[in-house]
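Trying the structure run again after the queue cleared.
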Amino acid sequence: MESLKEICSRIELQKEVEEAVLAMEEKQEFSRADKDIRKLTEAENWEKARENLKRSIGEDPRGLKILYCMLKAAVISWGKYLEQGIEGKIFEDTMKCFTRFVEEHKASYGVYGFDRDFWTGRQLSLQLFRLGELEYEKVEEKNGERYISIHIPSDAILDSEKIKGSLSSAKTFFEKQVPSWDKVPYKCCSWLLSPALKELLGENSRILKFQEMFTVEEVYKDSREFMEWVFKRRDIPLEDLPEETSLQKNMKAHLLSGGWVGEGMGCLKAGY
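Done. Tokens:
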């Protein structure tokens, strides 16, 4: 089994954060939490395990303690990848979510931190994988409906050929690794599928070309998910929103005039 240090290196964790995580390892902090750390890698248990860990950790203003626990869990996840014959590149691409989220925290708040622990149990429990530009999550609703949920990482390049290549890789992956999920639909819930964007973007926009790949089935006008992805934070008053990109400028004017953005839920069209 690889060490925590090796995992940090494989996902290219920021040096400052790696040093903080390894210092916790050296002090054997949270050694009594090993049971819950292991449960972070179990699809049916990770959410409860996360709650237990957060409670036992106590004050964690930058989230580095829970990050340490989750990276410890990633060591176990790698063992499960090996058992299932999943290649190392997929592991690294998937687990680099931690590095990306730490970087995004700095972009938002000026310091390295981690505040996505509510999400990353999906990666640790082998429910979500990054395959090329996009991420794919196995979802099973309480009513028994199953589908692959497509997620768009912040560093994804929405080039049509790259997206098609990612989708092709996903279908090959699920056919091989979990054949029972081979024929389920692919869905995406994102601000990128908001119909409102048609008024804010040019016809050659990569975002609009991405939208064209989906049949939008539902629209959630009240969602504010877009704030974090477009403006980096959700707590900025509308009049203070940055205008560093044309999308930010257009969206800010749209919102100030009473418009909405929200998000859409779409199903991938046949043929992709």
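The first strand starts at residue 128 and ends at 131. Worth checking whether this holds up in the mutant runs.
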